[in-house]
Amino acid sequence: MTRIVRRQAFSDTTFLWEVEAPDVARAAQPGHFVMLRLHEGSERIPLTVADFDREKGTITMVVQALGKTTREMMTNYAEGDTFLDFVGPLGLPQHVGKFGHVVLVGGGLGVAPVYPQLRAFKEAGCRTTGVIGFRNKDLVFWEDKFKTYCDDLVVCTDDGSYGKPGFVTQALKEICEKDKPDLVVAIGPLPMMNACVETTRPFGVKTMVSLNAIMVDGTGMCGSCRVTVDGKVKFACVEGPDFDGHKVDFKELMARQRRFKEQEAAANQDYAH
Ligand code: FES
Predict the structure, then answer these.
(1) What's the gap in Å between 241 CA and the centre of ligand 1?
(2) Alpha-carbon distance 84 to 125, whole Å?
(3) How many Å lie between the centroid of ligand 1 and the Cα of residue 106?
(4) 239: CATH
(5) ipTM, 2 decimals?
(6) Among residues 83, 85, 80, which one has the least CA distance to residue 72?
(7) How far is the CA of 96 from the centre of ligand 1 (A)?
(8) Is there a single domain that holds both residue 72 and residue 109?
(9) For 178-200, how does the pLDDT look when each residue is reduced to its tens digit (9 = 90+)?
(10) N or C: which end of the chain has fewer CB within 10 A?
(11) CB count in 10 Å sphere of residue 260
(12) Virtual CA dihedral for 191, 262, 13, 81, nearest 10 degrees?
């Protein structure tokens, strides 16, 4: 059993879990993900590591309550509670090195998994610019944590209620024009990552994305997380989740993400009753 040592709500639907998992914390690197299962009979869900503390032996994840399991996590589990399975770290870590100017872009919940990458690039001696975007002011989180490791930080809101009005892609385009990065890391919803990739493509700036493909086993056995990268089939759980965004077939991936829509809606409906 794994214990939740801290729970923090960021909004009505977004929350943080810090869980006690010393073995996972010892091995975790930026870019890794974990899989958890709440109880017997519940599904396994992948979550990207948002932070790890080797001394405390904890892993932090930021979750949005959208589907059945994440809603159950939000409503039925409190600080101090335990849940059944916690497996990780899984996937390949991000390749971190001294790359010059690195721009780290996070969209919504994607801001959380960008954070350990930002910290690692900064500690590796890079100049770091953070661009984090939210729908509105109420959804902004971790601005202070980003400030600690960013040489420059741009906070964007879609509705202009805080920071720079508009999407992260606008800020990213301006940075590419004025202060061309050597590397961009973009994490967020698929359409946002796709838009970031198309923003940097004309500038020829390598852009790494973290693909939240649908995962079942998380160990390369089921093929559910299949993505096409550079014309080749890759399994996001063992060969990713970070890939060169300019080579990813986003159109196919977005279509595949919709394939369980009906079942997901039915599970959500069931949970509501
Ligand atoms: Fe099954 Fe990746 S989740 S192969």
Answers:
(1) 11
(2) 39
(3) 24
(4) 3.40.50.80
(5) 0.98
(6) 83
(7) 24
(8) no
(9) 999 999 999 999 999 999 999 99
(10) C
(11) 14
(12) -120
